[in-house]
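Example 9 (inverse folding). The structure is encoded as follows.
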């Protein structure tokens, strides 16, 4: 029997997302609409709505649904915003973002992952997402400034280039700490020089590999 993914998705949002305190209606709506089963490897599709990360090619992972929802909610996005994501991976978070804001740019260092994500996002009709290939630890200056920046990989510090590419009143959410475990931090740009930082709690992400991350890899 074909699994009923729509039902699994509705259940996932009710239990894992709304049930754990995510309130932003745009985030909830996006989580209810994006078909996560298309972003995981085919053999993992029965587990697409499980409460954990799953493997994707190149030894990377698609994040746990709750963690993605939590990070996106922390960005406090508006429909007119332009957002930069570092670490496209499967493209799942980019698809969610595309339902919430006007314009999404996402950067992936693994060329194959970038290709797969680009193809998948286009096939599913997410046409306000641009997928770029390169080292996102230095951001993506061509389309800066960004109202929101979300980093899906952990680095030792918030890369100075990302801070520079944040708009005034822009928000950045990123795991910062050691290679093996990090704290999720939110940075808000108050003006040209001033940023305020909040600690949102412990997380575990794959490393941000790049010039302003963990070396060149
Ligand atoms: N947002 C993704 C999860 C990505 S996992 C999703 O929804 O599926 C983190 C991704 O960051 C990996 O694909 C990894 O290759 C990528 N990455 C690590 N360092 C990077 C860098 N410097 N620039 C761009 N991507 C990077």
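The amino acid assigned to each position is listed next.
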């Amino acid at each position: 029997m074909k699994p009923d993914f729509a039902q699994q998705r509705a259940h996932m949002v009710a239990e894992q997302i709304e049930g754990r305190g995510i309130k932003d209606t745009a985030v909830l709506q996006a989580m209810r609409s994006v078909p996560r089963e298309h972003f995981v490897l085919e053999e993992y599709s029965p587990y697409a709505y499980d409460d954990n990360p799953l493997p994707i090619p190149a030894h990377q992972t698609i994040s746990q649904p709750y963690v993605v929802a939590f990070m996106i909610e922390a960005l406090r996005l508006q429909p007119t915003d332009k957002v930069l994501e570092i670490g496209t991976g499967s493209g799942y978070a980019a698809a969610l973002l595309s339902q919430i804001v006007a314009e999404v740019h996402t950067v992936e260092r693994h060329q194959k992952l970038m290709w797969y994500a680009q193809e998948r996002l286009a096939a599913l009709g997410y046409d306000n997402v641009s997928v770029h290939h390169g080292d996102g630890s230095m951001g993506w200056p061509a389309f800066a400034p960004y109202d929101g920046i979300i980093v899906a990989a952990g680095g030792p510090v918030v890369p100075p280039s990302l801070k520079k590419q944040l708009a005034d009143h822009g928000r950045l959410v990123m795991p910062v700490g050691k290679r093996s475990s990090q704290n999720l931090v939110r940075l808000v740009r108050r003006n040209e020089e001033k940023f305020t930082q909040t600690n949102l709690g412990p997380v575990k992400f794959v490393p941000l590999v790049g010039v302003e991350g963990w070396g060149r890899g």
